[in-house]
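To whoever picks this up:

The parser on our side crashed when reading a file containing two proteins. I've narrowed it down to the boundary between the first structure block and the second sequence. Both blocks are reproduced below exactly, byte for byte. First block:
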Amino acid sequence: QVQLVESGGGSVQAGGSLRLTCTASGYTFGTVYMGWFRQAPGQEREGVACILPGGGITYYTDSVKGRFTISRDNAKNTLYLQMNSLKPEDTAMYYCAAARGVAALSTRHYNYWGQGTQVTVSS
């Protein structure tokens, strides 16, 4: 049974930082594409960042490039999202997701989802 559990969300002021963590179980973590997504109230879920199984290749949506960093520790079955220089528009529920196949930043590529962790950035 695949399980993804996010943590690390919270409330910060603009310009601050947070580090999200996603702990995975129930599958061979090091062999699958992983991604971070976010969803603000009334908006569609959007891809933030994704990372290939080996960890050497990453992709980001334009709005977070240079501010967010996705990484993974395959030995610990853990995915991370380091978020710096946070802006109010980054406020959303953040989800980690796992894909059975090749994946990028589309929700269609992902098969398993965590329950989410809330990030709130105040101005």
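<<boundary where parser fails>>
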Amino acid sequence: VQVAESGGGLVQAGGSLRLTCAASGFTVDIFAIGWFRQAPGKEREGVGCIKTTGTTLYADSVKDRFTISRDNAKNTVYLQMNSLKPEDTAVYYCAADLGVVVTSTSPYWGQGTQVTVSS
């Protein structure tokens, strides 16, 4: 079971980025997939997740700006980030779990992708 993030980069405040979490060794429709981020000097925090049912959950800090979606045919989960703010700057990780939701103790993690938002 592996997940790999891509799509990070440098963007100006107010801009958009779409991160991709590509899965291998399992199908994304039977795992919960979550997105986390870690800014320098801060603890890793949850951004949101998509359950096997397709239901999505978001942290208050990104609600109405970020959207998680799943493409079963491509075995991929996306994190669409709009109206980006400098405080969104972090390394973003995706994680997978056979449980209902993804937590910081979930077993499968990618290497992360850097997102930098300039003011």
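After patching the parser it read the second block fine. Residues 15 and 39 are 19 Å apart (CA to CA). The longest strand covers residues 17-24.
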